[in-house]
C-alpha cells in the first residue's frame, strides 16, 4: 500500500483512499448523522463571525469559490468550518484551516467527507497545530530546526548567525501544508503520503527543499536575504516535476524515524514551555 500511495493516487480514487487510510471513513460510518446535527445545533456567534471574515480570502482566484459560482463552494466551506469549530471546541477556528478545508472540498466534492478528513488532519495527524496556543506547530518548527542542524548543518549555522527564527521562514509550510506554496499536483502527492504516513512527511519535504537548495541559501548574507531565499526555493522545475520530487523526499533527507521525531518533539516542547 505504501508503495502504491507514494507513487501517487489517481485523482478519481484520491478522496476514497484518503478517507480509508486516514481513518476518516471509519469515523464517519461510526457516527451517522453527526455532521448534520452539528450544522443544525446552536452556533457560537464569535466563531461564525471569524469564519465569515475569511470566506472571501479563501482561493480568491478559484472560480468555484466565487459568490457568483453555481454551486458556490463558499457555502460548503462555511458549513465544514462551522461544523468543525463546534465539533472541536478546543480548536474552534483559526486561519489556515480555511485553505485546508477548501482543498479537501475540491478533491472530495463532498461536504461530510471533507469534515471527517479535516478532523483526521487536525485531530490526529497534526496534533495541536491549530489550537489557540499552536504549541504543536511551534514545536514542529523547532524540530525542523534540530533536524536541519543534524542533516544540513551549514544552513542551521547561517540561520543562527543572522538570528533568523525558523517560524519566520517555514510557518506557512506547516500551517497551509504547502498549499499555494508548492504546485497543486505536488501538494496533492504530498497529501497522499500525509494521510497515510503522518506528519513526518512534512519534515521530509522541508528537509529536501532545504538540502537541495543548500548552496543557494548559503549565498544569503543578511536577514532579509535569507527570508527571500526561502521564498525562492519553493519555485522552479525541482518542485513542478512531482514524480522526481516525491522520489527525492524519500531519499534526500536520509533515514527519519518517527522515534527520532517524537524524541525531538518532547525536548523542543519542554524548551518552549519553559520559555513560557
TrEMBL record:
Keywords carried by this UniProt record: GTPase activation
Gene Ontology molecular function terms on file: GTPase activator activity; small GTPase binding
Domain Rab-GAP TBC: 8-198
Gene3D superfamilies, per database record: putative rabgap domain of human tbc1 domain family member 14 like domains (1.10.8.270), Ypt/Rab-GAP domain of gyp1p, domain 3 (1.10.472.80)
PROSITE patterns: TBC_RABGAP
Keyword Zinc tagged: no
Domain of life: Eukaryota
Pfam families in UniProt: RabGAP-TBC
Functional summary from the UniProt entry: May act as a GTPase-activating protein for Rab family protein(s).
Name of the protein in question: GRTP1 protein
Organism this protein belongs to: Bucorvus abyssinicus (Northern ground-hornbill)
Amino acid at each position: 500500500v505504501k508503495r502504491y500511495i507514494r507513487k501517487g493516487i489517481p485523482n478519481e480514487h484520491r478522496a476514497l483512499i484518503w478517507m480509508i487510510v486516514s481513518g476518516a471513513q471509519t469515523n464517519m460510518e461510526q457516527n451517522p448523522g453527526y455532521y448534520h446535527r452539528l450544522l443544525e445545533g446552536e452556533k457560537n456567534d464569535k466563531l461564525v463571525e471569524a469564519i465569515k471574515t475569511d470566506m472571501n480570502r479563501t482561493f480568491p482566484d478559484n472560480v468555484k469559490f466565487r459568490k457568483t459560482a453555481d454551486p458556490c463552494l463558499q457555502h460548503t466551506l462555511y458549513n465544514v468550518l462551522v461544523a468543525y469549530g463546534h465539533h472541536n471546541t478546543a480548536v474552534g477556528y483559526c486561519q489556515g484551516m480555511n485553505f485546508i478545508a477548501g482543498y479537501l472540498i475540491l478533491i472530495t466534492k463532498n461536504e461530510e467527507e471533507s469534515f471527517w478528513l479535516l478532523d483526521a488532519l487536525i485531530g490526529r495527524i497534526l496534533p495541536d497545530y491549530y489550537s489557540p496556543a499552536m504549541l504543536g506547530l511551534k514545536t514542529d518548527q523547532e524540530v525542523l530546526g534540530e533536524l536541519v542542524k543534524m542533516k544540513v548543518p551549514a544552513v542551521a549555522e547561517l540561520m543562527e548567525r543572522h538570528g533568523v527564527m525558523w517560524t519566520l521562514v517555514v510557518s506557512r509550510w506547516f500551517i497551509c501544508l504547502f498549499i499555494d506554496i508548492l504546485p497543486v499536483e505536488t501538494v496533492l502527492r504530498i497529501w497522499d503520503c500525509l494521510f497515510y504516513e503522518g506528519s513526518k512527511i512534512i519534515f521530509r519535504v522541508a528537509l529536501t527543499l532545504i538540502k537541495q537548495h543548500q548552496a543557494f541559501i548559503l549565498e544569503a548574507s543578511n536577514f532579509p536575504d535569507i527570508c527571500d531565499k526561502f521564498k525562492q526555493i519553493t519555485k522552479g522545475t525541482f518542485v513542478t516535476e512531482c514524480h522526481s520530487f516525491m522520489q527525492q523526499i524519500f531519499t534526500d533527507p536520509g533515514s527519519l524515524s518517527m522515534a527520532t521525531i517524537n524524541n525531538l518533539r518532547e525536548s523542543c516542547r519542554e524548551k518552549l514551555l519553559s520559555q513560557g
